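ingest -> validate -> predict -> emit
validate: passed (alphabet ok, no gaps, 659 aa)
predict: started
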Amino acid sequence: MDTMIENDHILLWNHASITVLDVRHMMMRTGEALRSYRLPASVFLLATRGGAQVRLDGMEYIIKRFQVMHSGKGAYLDIFLIEEEFEYYMIFYKAQIPLPRRQDMVSLMERNSPFHMQYSFLPNYPISLFHKVKLMDQEWRQSGPLERFQVKSLFFQFVCSILQQLHRQGIDMKEPDLAAQAIMYIQEHYSETITLESLAESLNYSVPHLSALFKKSTGYSPIEYLIRIRIDMAASLLVETDATLREIAESVGYKDPYYFGRLFKKYRGISPARFRARESGQRKAEDNPSTTIRSSIVVRRFRRYIDDDNRYQYERVGDIPMYRQSKSTAAATLLLCLALLLNACSGGASNTSTSTGGERSPSNSVSAPQSSAQSNSGQTSDNLQTKVVSTINGEIDIPVNPKRIVADQYLGSFIALGITPIGTPGLHRKNPYFAEALKDVEDIGDVNGSLEKVIELQPDLIVTGATPDQSRYEQLSIIAPTVSVPYGELKNAHEELTYFGKLLGKEKEAEAWLAEYDRRIAAARESVGEAVPSDATFSIFELTNKSTYVYGDNFGRGGQAVYQALGFKPPAHIAAEIFDKQWAELSNELLPRYAGDYIILTSNDRTLEDIKADPIWATLDAVKNNRVYVWKEERSWYFDPIAVLSQTEEIAAWLTGQH
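emit:
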């Protein structure tokens, strides 16, 4: 590394205000991959076991044990295993020049920022780095102010060691391709409001610096490039759909269709209406209805990303929400062939679902011939009417009165609305709160179910929980119209029942069920209010053979019943933490800090007597005062509306001495 550049980097590290945003310990195993993860902040990665091929904005590295990698905010990260497993730590941080800002520091930051550089190297003294990172991870999990201060102290020691070894080894650093990152962002957000300021902020650069580099790389200003992307997308919609001019304008980011029309004519030399007529005529003449209007300036690429420094959704403590996939192109191709074969054999045509993201008016007529699945289920033409619904994958056509629904999530809402699906994973068929209602439903396999089994059932609608593996949605949508609902988007019984009531045309049933739900919850709350002090605190724990866990208000184990339905609170000093993370693994010495006046405990192999005999648990006030409720995971894990109602009444009966 050039000595002048090295000195500039050290100068910036000295002047910058550094905030450690997150410390993550990750493990990937055979079949897993991380694809197109957009880094929400600058990051150090330290590999500790195994090996992987890592790609940063297209630059490929082979990362093995004790390798160190660094990249800045906005880069796209892909990880593919080259060994059976790959274990690593990631430290996310943010660096800013504090106010008042010296202009020379700001200029230096834009010209040669160490916080954006990409590099990878094998340190000469890896064990020392490993110990620092491991200790950072341990301290970060404690989440107290002193522990966070300790993490920051360790981080500076870690960076100091990195800078020393970079100097000794003469490691080359690569500046990120800022224009490429901006292009990816624009492609994914063209339908949203984008300003130069918001674009620069998303990449952590100043507006003048971004504009200059972008223009040099592409020949366009960022806003002109955005307009061209929007016009290209609009041209495709004009040719491929019968959407109105207003609908197309809104779908590509313009509220005013007249302004959009003027822009379109400026860039295409023809009005949108004349363009549609001209292209339609050419397509008919060529007898090629599949012709697609492609972008005139860039190949369309779609990626998932996280663009906020703090938008972390915890799937488990220590994991960052990266998109892991075990994607099989061969399997997807096979499924497509099977789906086409089923339709061909039955003489039917599959329904077409719109996933372009463009808006369109609801349809009250059949847009495709009746499928074989619909014929076999005895549906009438009235049943075959479709409507357009908005989902995270765009707007799609679904049957107005679906008769053959496969659902791998949200079974409680279906049963509450009086709808029995034809297929669901076996895990849901074991739900004790409505197992009887699902006894005749086909088991499509564990977790999300078998795609082959779903094809065999010939559904006319599929409802699934959204996952980072977009390939599964694509495979399901080949089989039938698929509505994907992200986990956590529907936060309570009211949101869930209202959503599915509207989706399935069961609004009245949803209102009636929720009215009864509210009545019973209010009764449980009133009875508990007379037995438990209003300021009493509650904690939700799970105890396994190896670990103890604490839970928030939206992860089962009774959290929804206690915190949402009954309205109790956790101890004040941990409330924000557990409601943010939703669950955390605890060491025994931390139990007193997280324990409330009452404890709801899930355990399959511990009884209340076992808890009272445990030397650590026995010290807790809740245990001493006999305020611990122990139940098994088969009753506590579920948190659908039916389960939450039953759990609320069960816990209320215990609190009032009726259990």
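The chain is about 45% helix and 20% strand.
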